[in-house]
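Q: Convert this sequence to structure tokens.
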Amino acid sequence: MSRPDDFESPVAIARTLIGYPSVTPDVGDALNYLENLLEVLGFTCRRLDFGEGDERVDNLYARRGKGAPHFCFAGHMDVVPAGDSSEWSVAPFEGIVRDGHLFGRGAVDMKGSIAAFVYAVAQRDAHEQGSISLLIAGDEEGPAVNGTVKVLEWLREQDEVIDDFLVGEPTCREHLGDTIKIGRRGSLNLRLRVNGVSGHAAYPELARNPVSAIARMVSALCALELDEGNENFQPSVLTCTSIDTNNPTSNVIPMQASARMNIRFNDLHTRKSLETLLRGVLDEVADMEKCAYEMDIIESGKPFLGKAERLISLLEDAINTHAQMRTTLSTGGGTSDARFIREHGRVVEFGLVGRSMHQADECVAIEDLERLGKIYGALLDGYFAEAKSA
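A:
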């Protein structure tokens, strides 16, 4: 097959990808287009479907080469919903270029990076030493249970070894190249429930109000200073995201109140140590309020460092060459699929400026998108040059 014009710039690829409204997990058409491009470039592609019914997720794994070292670009094709279209100045799924920017849902998170992946590998000889692969999941913006996690399990079953991963999440804050993510804090999701005795608001002495109790509990937890951070991680933080009673009436004391919280924690803590700390605080308040409580905890990620020092160095060199930017190494921000990948190989995250991700009029500067493709290409050149000389 002949090489499409798309390979001349990541912009054309990104525009086409944005044209597929791949809201989690409906990524099939976008993956079809990507698969066709990669097959032209000599990749062997596997479509990997996991889950049933509405939970079914379509993923793509593509590899070129058979030997070591094995480098993998990893990311996700799914995007969050566009929301109210009236808040957009352009159609969210048309890939509009205006004023030096490419607009559309996924332009930053993260179809722009996927386009840069393809552009970078298209510039390399298909017969390079070692192997290049792409792991593209379909549910990172959703439950994240039938995407990257399942593909990694499949790779392990196939005895497929990947040495180094680059995840193309939007890591930069103000300028392309200013931030590389070398790890992430862990994440705990908490749900707290307090049961009371309902009654008339005019006779509070005849009821037991769970609202006042849960308010004190949340206040006590939010006042905790968990730590001061360390060399690699920001301080751990607890944030309350909701307090609810499901009470439609203003003159009735509710029977139950609930709250949701999230903790982003560094490697000074574990789930167990945090749960012990939280329950100590809650027990004290419960004794004062003479109430009982229930707390459920779900750990959605552990804190980690990617331990990819040489890959970081090569990426810094590529950024310096093509973006002339002093780079900060960070473990801040939310979770990503890197939390799963880190158990399978060395991993770093680097992508576009994330200021507009998940917003109306999500957009990327054309110059940034083109430079990202060159940075990824320079990273590959350095990576495989080292392998050749080793």
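Residues 366-389 form the longest helix (24 residues).
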